[in-house]
Amino acid sequence: MTQVEAPTWTPMTADERAQFDRDGFLVVPGVLSESEIEVARTAVLGAFERAGQPGGHGLGSTGALHQLSAVTSLPELAFLLDHPVAFRYIWSLLGWNVHVYHSHIDVHPQIHEKQKDWWHWHQDGGRQNREIETDPRPTLSVKLAYWLSDVSETGRGNFTVLPGSHKTNWLPGPPNRGTPWPQPEGALQITANPGDLVVFDRRLWHARSDNYSEVTRVGAFFGYTYRWIAGRDEVADLPNTPEWAGFNDVQKQLLGHCPQGDGSGDHAWGHYPETTPLYGALKERGLLDSSIPALIP
Question: Which InterPro entries match (predicted)?
Answer without folding.
Answer: Phytyl_CoA_dOase-like
